[in-house]
Amino acid sequence: MEYVSALVPPVVMAALFIGVVRVIVKTQGGAAKSKEDAAVDAALARAESTRQATTDA
What we know:
With 57 residues, the protein is mainly α. 88% of the residues lie in helices and 0% in strands.
């Protein structure tokens, strides 16, 4: 029975890892992709303008 207790933690971790990967893959793209892309682009533009302002000053 020691082999069962030795195998349970890796099997549980593998199942959780597979679940996380599935969630990540399912949430990529879809209806909200353009909104997420726009938010990232806006954040990058703000960061770039802040960097330009600090270098010019």
